Amino acid sequence: MNKLTDAGQNVFNARYALRDDSGNIIETFEEAVFRLARVAAGAEKENPKHWGEKLASIN
After folding, report:
1. Distance CA 26, CA 21 (A)
2. pLDDT at 32 over 80
């Protein structure tokens, strides 16, 4: 997966990164991509694991 620019990392950190109860960021951009891909693939009735991996691998 491509690395984010500094500006992209700042936006990710400020708006999208998963945080703990203290507000600390607890995932990387790559982990967020996989998390969101798994959630989106959960809508698939047939082989959601396959679709989660496929969605996460899109560049």
Report:
1. 10
2. yes
